[in-house]
Amino acid sequence: MTTTIPIGLTVDGRHHDLDVDPRTTLLDALRERLGNTSPKKGCDHGQCGACTVLVDGRRVLSCLTLAVAKDAAEVTTADGLAPDGALHPVAEAFLAHDAYQCGFCTPGQVCSAVGVLDEAAHGAPSAVTDDLTGPTVLDRAEIAERMSGNLCRCAAYTNIVSAVAEVAGDAARRGSTVEGADR
Amino acid sequence: MTVLDARVMGTSVRRVEGPDKVTGTARYAADQPVDAPLHLHPVQATVARGRITGLDTGAARAVPGVVGILTPDDAPRLADLGDPELRVLQHHEIHHRGQYVAAVLAETPEVAREAAGLVVVTVAEEPQVTAFDEHSPARHPAATLANYAPPTSGIVDPDAALDAAAVTVRATYTTPVQHHSPMEPHATVAAWDGDHVVLYESSQGVAGARDTVAALFGLGEDDVEVASPHVGGGFGAKGSLHAGTVLTVLAARTVPGRAVKRALSRREMFETVGHRPATVQHLALGATADGRLEAITHDVVASTARIEEFGEPTATGTRAMYAAPHRRTSHDLVPLDVDPPTYMRAPGEAPGSFGLECAMDELAVALGLDPIELRVRNEPEVHPESGVPFSTRNLVACLRRGAERFGWSARPPQPRASLVDGWWHGTGVAAATFPAIRFPGSTAVIRFRHGRYEVEIGATDIGQGARTVLTQIAADALGVPTDRIEVAIGDTALPRGTVAGGSSGTASWGSTISEAADRFRDKWGDDPEEGAEADAATPDNPWAGELSMAAYGAQFAEVAVHADTGEIRVPRLLGVYAAGRILNPTLARSQFLGGMVWGLSMALHERSVVDPRFGHVVNHDLAGYHIAAHADVREMTAEWIDEDDPYVNPMGSKGIGEIGIVGTAAAIANAAYHATGVRRRELPLM
Ligand code: FES
Ligand code: FES
Hints:
CATH class of the largest domain in chain A: Mainly Alpha
Shape of chain A: globular
Helix content of chain B: 10-25%
Shape of chain B: globular
CATH architecture of the largest domain in chain A: Orthogonal Bundle
CATH topology of the largest domain in chain A: DNA polymerase, domain 1
CATH topology of the largest domain in chain B: Aldehyde Oxidoreductase, domain 4
Number of strands of chain A: 5
CATH architecture of the largest domain in chain B: 2-Layer Sandwich
Number of helices of chain B: 14
Number of domains of chain B: 3
Distance between the termini of chain B: 49 Å
Largest interface: A-B, 56 and 63 residues
Oligomer: heterodimer
CATH class of the largest domain in chain B: Alpha Beta
Order of helices and strands of chain A: EEHEEEHHHH
Helix content of chain A: 25-40%
Strand order of the largest sheet of chain B: 3-5-1-13-10-11-12
Number of helices of chain A: 5
Number of strands of chain B: 27
Distance between the termini of chain A: 58 Å
Strand content of chain B: 25-35%
CATH superfamily of the largest domain in chain B: Aldehyde oxidase/xanthine dehydrogenase, molybdopterin binding domain
Strand content of chain A: 5-15%
Number of domains of chain A: 2
Structural class of chain A: alpha+beta
Structural class of chain B: alpha+beta
Bound molecules: FE2/S2 (inorganic) cluster
CATH superfamily of the largest domain in chain A: [2Fe-2S]-binding domain
């Protein structure tokens, strides 16, 4: 067999030691080695977003990430965003807005949305941000732009944006730097 | 027929599997936990036509971790079902680029892939034709159409009527090859135990998958189990089994006792699971000066595969749409050395409505008549070809309601009337229809256990919400709240269910459940004993053939076209539908909007570009084959009018999965014309 390399990963709060083929992607390590099938493989080429997870808090395409390069990283999948039995507010908003149909892109969309909220809270601009100096306002156009790396063939887009906007609005009402969705 | 009283039907019950889907714990085929599965990687033909003359597997076999290699020389034999697509590794002929010619089984996906790359295939190439040309010498009339409608239809003398008409529009519209591209690639987990095989399969219909595998391997029905608990979209591509599944089951056959797990690569999704064929549509409309149609002709040439004919029913929707005394539809096919086309969301209606509804717009312009008014003037009282009455037909109501909501009356009649910040703005409209289909052949069992009603039917939830809507139907049919219903679907262990396709699922399965509920209540009343049980097969619709049953809709689009670059954006889409009773407004809205986005995607992006030299789709991934993304979608609204149709089924519902795409691309093209004064007759528009 090919040489393997030992790495450690913390996935959804649990630590794992494993030996990986250096060609193994983070996505395959999660799915095939650790049995965590929350992130999905839609393309394996970084073109669809279905494999999106949070690595050390930032959204990452796990199919474009080699597992060996993430030794000691903290990985969060859609299954680990909230403690067991609870749902993350973004996941709750997806349910409330029917922001999914077949559900295959959904874990990636949810992780991506959590990433978007955090990026906006830190003032990161996007291609459609007009004012680069003020606080980031997550209106529908901003959300759609920032979520565009996550394809949904069922095309739940309108409802996904509504779900993210609702959480962005809640964040604003709680006094975070993310402002209301309905500018 | 009695229509069920709606108590839970018509309310927005949330999807029952929602929490599993938003956390990713819903298990799709490739997510199923199996012990130490083997992985399979295919070797595919790199020519479109020829013969395999040699296969050197030596280097591949030498890779540590390789467990086996399948080739046409040694793969297990399959029965010939007369479907060349399924004759995987049974011969040395190559019929299309990407065809499976060998496969490597290995302990890990990385090793399987590496070794597959080391298999050397020698091929004697033969001349191939993969470029679609309507003037091909191989062009011939379609023998059959995929919706079983007659390939041609005609009444009186349309050519003479076109020549004699006061105003005539003749135009040719083209639509390209498109690929379904569900987000979940087809996936199979297969494990054999002697002559018994268990499959997790990404399928729109477990019964069909089971039947095909059983027939191919010469097994009895009971020796094949198929489960599709969750399916990541299908859109027609997962309606029947394709070669990829056969390959995996074949490979698993060689390693009894061990599961083989394989999801297709995204590239294979452009090579082996079917596509929507290309069409060239010749439309001619002749009308009186006041806009009454005298003649409609819709003559289509579509691509198909040389190995297996698929007749895209492009013009059959035209037969139902508008009144005209003289009419003709026809379908010719041009066979190519490609993998067989198949059903793709609104087969026929999706491409066909682009031709017809753009031609209607051109006729409106030629007449100087509002395009909505033109459609209203040609509304038929009975089906224009068969002469049978409609069960319900509310197209005009959809057009009127849409016009009001969209602000149609403020529309300037002339094109090229609005230039704002470098963008030309325009609006367009198109009409839509999709037949209300009920397939026979499902069975439902209802059993009372532990105070709850278990409802079993081998239906499939591909994202349309079957689990949820069937729960609602069962609740109303049994007269109990939804929390006393437990619906089980997606498994051949359950009674047979028909395929999730043709917008037929809810009607077919729901009618069956409703019938079983009637029997259950007749037999057991409303206070059944533990273990009480009843079953029923899908009842026939006594009105079938007596009435024309279909959903109708009106699509409205606002388009902005960049004055310098020609970039097209769609700031606003509105769809208004008449589809019988809407059983779950939230889920229905999601279906309609999803269909409309497909129309947008078809209008702006989707085209599989075939390289005629090598026969492959050049843009065979999601970076090259664009589907609509978040940023393409702006203001979108779907709504419906109340429609009571007591004839279609006990729920009073019509299928809604496909009508959203019908006419949408035409509405966008018509809006682009209105914005710019330039008529584009080919998709995609840019
Ligand atoms: S699977 Fe990673 S982006 Fe598609
Ligand atoms: S919900 Fe099906 S792909 Fe997004």
